[in-house]
Amino acid sequence: MKKKIGKALVVGAGIAGIRSALDLAEIGYGVVLIDKAEHIGGVLSQLDYQFPTNHCGMCRMLPLVERDAGSQFCLRKGLFHENIEILLGTRVTAVAGEPGRFTVSLRTRPTWVDPQRCTGCGACVPVCPVEVPDAFNAGLGRRKAIYLPVPHQVPNAYRIDPAACTRCGACVDACPCGAIALSTAERKDFRILVVDDEPIVRQSLESWLEDEGFAVDTAASAPEALEALEKSEYQLMLSDIKMAGMDGVELLRQAKTACPDLAVVLMTAYATVETAVEAMKIGALDYLVKPFDPETLVPMVMRVHEELLAAKDRQVEVGAIVLAGGTDYFDPRQQAGNPYGYGRLPAVVTSLEFERIVSGSGPTTGRLVRPHDGRPIRKIAWLQCVGSRDIQCGADFCSSICCMYAVKEAMLAREKGAGEVEAAIFYMDMRCFGKPFQRYRDRAEAEGVRFERGRIHSLAPAPGTADPTLRFVALDGTVREETFDLVVLAVGQRPARGAAELAQMVDLPLNPWGFLATSPLSAVRTERPGIVAGGSFAGLRDIGESVIFASAAANEASRVLHGTGGSLAAIEEAATEFRDVSRQPPEVLVAVCTCGDRILSQNDRRQWIDRLERDPVVQETIFIDRVCTAEGWQALADAITARRPNRVLIGACHPYVFTRRLRELGRATRLHPALMDVVDLLGPRMAASGENAEAVSSSGDLPRRLAMAVARLQGTCLPQVEATPVSRQALVVGGGIAGMTAALAIADCGYPVDLVEAGDRLGGNLRWIGHTLDGHDLNALLAEAIARVGKHPKITVHANTRVRGAFGEVGHFYSTLEAADGAAQTLEHGVVVLATGGGEAAASAYGFGSHPAIVTQKGFQEALAEGRFDPAALNTVVMIQCVGSREEPRNFCSRVCCPTTLKQALALKRDNPEATVVVLYRDLMTYGFAETWFTRARRAGVIFVAYRLDDKPKVEVAGPDRPVTVTVTDAVLGRPLTVAADAVVLATGIAPGLPADLAAAYGATLDQDGFLAEAESKWRPVDSLREGVFACGLALGPRNVEESVATAGAAAQRALRILERERLPAAHLTAVVRHSLCARCGRCIEACPYEARRLDEELDRVLVNPAMCQGCGACEAVCPNGAAVLNGLSMPQVFGMLDQALA
Amino acid sequence: MNDFEPTIIAFVCNWCTYTAADLAGTSRLSYPPNVRLVRVMCTGMVDPQYVLKALLEGADGVLVSGCHPGDCHYINGNFKARRRIKLLKALLPQFGFAPQRLRLTWIGASDGIEFARVMQELVEQVRELGPSEAKMKMVI
Asked: For residue B50, what is the nearest residue in chain A, using CA coordinates?
């Protein structure tokens, strides 16, 4: 893997942090990925299912190019990548420097368990006497003070929660590996000298501090203290001032001369405070005024201790910092009066707790029963907007995710309950603003989820039971009562705990909602160059959006790193010349780690050797005590050098940890690491109840597993696949803000870009929008982008040009461009970014076209600008939302129309406060911070009237000179409302402008609405399924300017993964074709989900593009002739494994 | 009490079910010792020949288990497996095997408990069926 000298720090290892880290690592930068939690994955480690698929799929974020550089297993278990160093339980304590040269101090919390030694056997758990609520299960279960942060994590080393641990030492005795060292040692090493002439003070201080684990000595006078300081080393001296003979100040003076590093705190009576202050000038750290109690003293000593530890913080030098700290959930107990009784009523849970109830690894093992009484759950209510859209609890924003996760949870509940579960969602507006979300919501309704628009009046237990009863006001104004088995509070998001401190540390302000403030219209850039925000750290986003903003943040960081010289290649060791073993019959050396006789005893060895050497390819079986130690590793290297096997199988624990070490071993022994394998001897263990490890080992399961691995390894050979060369330049189609941003993002990292625009000018929709809802000027953004694109030496703009045709695959596409004058040229490029944009959808309802007063949003803005409408003359304006959108055939939300309506309504009220503005809407989609403007609009007197899809407003036109009449049924009043309007503004939403044939030319597909179909809406949101083809802006889906700009950065970053490589290497596990056996039937071409195979008619051969092949083996299973072979897991290898499994 | 201990070959996908098996192990759930895991990249690569080979070589039951539909790391591999295994089940009697010896399940990464349960259930089911038909013929 290519390595550059540039390095970045990613703070937060949730899904966004992982995305940012991988995006940077995949283009060669070193990454330090830290999280304050003890596991990666953030909140997603607790969520098994995601909307709108109701599945997981997180693993699709793993590298697709150069797969072998990273781990290839479930991301919930863990993550490894050559260029990423992961530090858990770690936080930032200081940041200094400038872009390209930041020095960051990191402090890692000790876990008191040595991860190298801990095998995850769990013997410590039953003996631990402490039980605390289990954070992984959202507090629904309990865990011990020694615990696994998540149940499936590699390496699965236990941790000790220092806050809960009583340091009783039971686990230390129980641990068979000696992995636990209860480190009050750190405090024991912190030696304190207490100097006072009063014995009572000495004794009490000694006892308070020793209770906290510090090492304390005492001295009764200054000379005695100096003597003690001479004899041994102390870190802190607590000294009285007034002492007979030599006083504290003189002691301080002499002590600081003898031991300059000693921290001294003076204890003083009120009368001598002045002396103490004076003493600080000659080196006292602080003073305490007598009398004091342990509550004052102990924290102070701990602070001094902490500060001393801080000096030992690890310093890392990085060029850029990505802040991806995520968000936290709102605690419903903080609501004034706790109206839903959360914490008091056991059947009222938060959405996160419900996620744990439906999880297979949760407290109820996925059964739909109430955790507190085990009763089956049959009727559930979800209450929306708990802690969101609520000014009283400081949330004048919409949390953006709750509506959709409530729909998901309701569907999951219905599915788990086999249709017998009633699920009802009580909401204000159903905010399904993502591309597939409206259809998802409709599907939920069709499948029986009840949607109840209404406000909850109160929640109380039903008489005589603990079951919650809701009283609510339905839309028709009647008050109803209904009892449920479980009430789920759809809690909103809050800035992550510690976010404010982190912002302060990097000297960045917070926005009015308490999140990190970012630069206008960027959402990832901050005031400080080189420090960027990723994921949901600076706003409220779902997974898909977080992933986009994480990639965009990685792109900003890449540009900073590139701009400050971080792209220089790191000095790498010379490539090892491996032994050519391709012509040799396999000879396998099996090395088994005995782990100090824990894995197998002396007596078993003979049995293992006999079992393994039944297979003649096994050259020898050797046993090494603790292969993980330096001596063990050397013994293994020596054995390989001496015996010269051509395959090596290691039986040990923690196989994932070995990946990096195998490369070293390969260099030392000149045997290619792909010809080595590690079997996890402590992995999935098939122990029948009561059976222990010894019994398993003697029953032959472990030697059998080794024998199966030998069978697989002997069939492994080095891939003979040529790496695909890359044409290292990009084509961006579309010159709107997304296209220009993408072009700049790629060009800023040093690669040439051709930018194709069909029109004669760059700019797209930004030429008419003017400004955003929050008042940012888009013309300035546009002018700056056009100027930069024009000046950039790496960007070639082709205006008045269209892409006529294209062919090729990732690494080398060929596109034919045709200019308006007919001139054609062909370009070769490695990647393509489709940024063809979109526009306002055409209106065809509500009498559009029959009266000049009926206009679209764009038309309204243009009419105001051109003076056809005079704001002062507009007395009544009706704005109708969702015109032809959110219903078939355009059944998606366009996201921008509701904010645009607010923008226009507020502008109108500003220019003409007397004007009546009526907004007719279905669900007002002011997600995120846009909610604030909804509040403002209501305060400004804009009237909002909800209408139903089955009872749409009616627009009547009496004549060209008479006002237009709009009639709508007001749901609350229950009767029709008629308005005579001077203008009727129709919000028609967005129509994509991506021609199907253009997408098809590059092998990408469109979704049913004409936007690009992403490879995966959450995990690969800007990729098409075909590698090398990306999309951004409106071509990808409806988005506002800020979000479109982010998709452009994300698409550029994804494209850079390809452009950064001269050749795209094949992974070890890649499909190949045995041409002599191939009948060219083409079944493998159809079976390949990545379109990595094609029939080359000239060569008359089926070819595999190794950069696109992901090694799934689908081709192997369909090939009738055995011509399609998955290198590394071929049919003979599987057969061999089966033979051994059943031998 | 039937004390026959059947041997089960389980083809598990690298992404979901193997993780679940791992989780069952680390959670110290007990599942029968006579299950032998064969880790494949995807259920979509399980050739029907693998299943037949396992049964012919003496396995009493075969499990194929992958990610839930729609959840496949390789987009649609499990759909391929679903079609293939359904067809194979129809053909098994022609090879002389009871179709109940083959089972296809979807077990997600977090479902360690589900994995242990499926394994126990399958072992019980196969125990009822008795030793594999192939084994009995080999004795003859």
From this structure: A1135
Produce one character per residue of B19-53: b if its CB has 16 or more CB atoms within 10 Å, e if not: bbbbbbbbeebbbbbbbbbbbbbbbbbbbeebbbb
Residue spans per domain, chain B: 8-139
Q: What residue ranges in A974-1019 does DSSP mark as E strands?
A: 975-981, 983-986, 990-992, 1014-1016
Interface test with B, best of A61, A361, A1140 (most B CBs within 10 A): A361
* Side chain identity at residue A351, one-letter code: S
User: How close B102 gets to chain A, by Cα (Å)?
Assistant: 16
Tell me, yes or no, whether A176 and A233 share the same domain.
Answer: no
Task: Tell me the chain B residues in contact with residue A1069 when contact means C-beta distances shorter than 8 Å.
Answer: 41
Domain boundary residue, one of A959, A991, A1023: A991
Interface confidence: ipTM more than 0.90: yes
* Class for the domain spanning B8-139: alpha beta
Other CB atoms within 10 A of residue A289 CB: 14
> Do A262 and A385 share a domain, yes or no?
no
Which residues does residue A486 pair with via DSSP β-bridges, in sequence order?
A: A380
Binning pLDDT at 50, 70 and 90, where does residue A184 land?
low
Identify whether residues A130 and A160 lie together within a single domain.
yes
CATH number, domain of A851, equals 3.50.50.60
- CA-CA distance, A682 to A685, in Å (whole number)? 7
Q: Contact B33/A56, CB-based, under 8 Å?
A: no
Which DSSP state fits A576? P
Regarding whether A200 and A172 lie in a shared domain, the answer is no
C-alpha neighbours within 13 Å on the C-beta side of residue A343: 8
Does A113 map to a domain?
no
Residue A456, both tokens: 């909850």
A residues 69-88 lying closer than 8 A (beta carbon) to B: 72-74, 76-77
Residues A269-303 have pLDDT tens digits of 766 778 877 888 888 888 888 887 777 788 788 77
d(CA A320, CA A101): 8
Confidence label for B88 from pLDDT (cuts 50, 70 and 90) = very high
The yes-or-no verdict on residue A697 having pLDDT over 50 is no
Question: Could you tell me if residue A934 is inside a domain?
Answer: yes
Helix, coil or strand: residue A141 = coil
Using the 3D structure, point to which of A312, A346, A370 is the last residue of a domain: A312
Domain enclosing residue A549, as ranges: 7-100+319-326+496-563
The verdict on A289 and A191 lying in the same domain is: yes
> Number of structural domains, chain A?
8
Nearest-Cα distance to chain A for B115, in Å, is 10
- Measure A156 CA to nearest chain B CA, in Å: 8
A629 and A652 fall within a common domain: yes
pLDDT tens-digit series, residues A214-249: 889 999 988 899 888 888 888 899 998 888 888 888
Q: Cα-flanking dihedrals φ and ψ of residue A211, to 5°?
A: -60, -30
Quick check: is A941 in a domain? yes
- Assign residue A255 the CATH number of its domain: 3.40.50.2300
Residue B73 has its nearest CB partner, among A59, A691, A708, at A59
Rounded Cα gap, residues B69 and A180, in angstroms: 42
Assess contact for A983 and A993: CB atoms under 8 A. Answer: no
Query: Domain check: are A357 and A430 in the same one?
Result: yes
A245 touches chain B (CB under 8 A): no
Distance of alpha carbon A183 from alpha carbon A159, whole angstroms:
12
Q: Please report, for residues A61, A632, B73, the alpha-carbon distance to residue A74 in angstroms, rounded to integers and kept in the order given.
A: 10, 30, 9
Q: Is residue A568 part of a domain?
A: no
The beta-carbon neighbor of A1113 closest among B40, B75, B113 is B40
Question: What is the C-alpha to C-alpha distance for residues B111 and B108, in angstroms, rounded to an integer?
Answer: 5
Q: Measured between CB atoms, does A814 come within 8 Å of chain B?
A: no
CA separation, residue A928 to residues A243, A401, A433, A546, A899 (Å): 64, 9, 11, 13, 11
